[in-house]
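retry 2 of 3: previous attempt timed out while embedding iron/sulfur cluster. Reduced batch size to 1 and resubmitted. Inputs unchanged:
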Amino acid sequence: MKGLLEIYNTLLNAYGQRHWWPAKTPFEMMLGAILTQNTTWMNVEKAIRNFGELLSPEFISSISNDELAQLIRPSGYYNQKAIKLKAFTQWFERYSYDVEKAIQMNGQFLRTELLAVKGVGCETADSILLYALNKPFFVVDTYTKRILYRLGYDLPNTYDGLRLKIEESIPSDIYLYGEFHALFVEHGKRHCKKTPSCQACPVDAVCKKRIFV
Ligand code: SF4
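retry 2 succeeded.
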């Protein structure tokens, strides 16, 4: 994917560093990656706030599914998400709830494990791997696909196909991956929305789908 790094630099100049992921601890980050499925980040924050000082894998594993569902109610689909959080916490127990222990494992091995956890798909797994476990997996989401398509790239039709194509095109670097994904999200929210707002778009000069006004 020629020119991807230039796109990154242009978005970075336009929006500045995003300092993602917005979480106080790696565990909060991992939890947020599951809670954010099918909802806004504002709702995730409300759900996380409900834990107060109690947010920990030990606490989540000690309460019932119903109690957990009530705490995360603001994030929507709370009964399903409670089951997912329980399953995720069970996986994390393999590493004694210690992020540093998990980080020592091979990235591909961790990805295979995470994808076997109920409710963890590719995007969630790669978010956790990149932002909490420091493994270089590029996170592909709706914004990424929409923006790259509009910019004129020929996109593979599978998640991993696109992820690998992006990873082949830019240096393998967790900082770069983390910022680039966050910049795609920012650009998708500010300009490249469902109906794009192309006026003053920072990458309009190289865009194939620009709407002229
Ligand atoms: S010019 Fe429009 S369609 Fe192209 S990237 Fe910018 S906002 Fe999206």
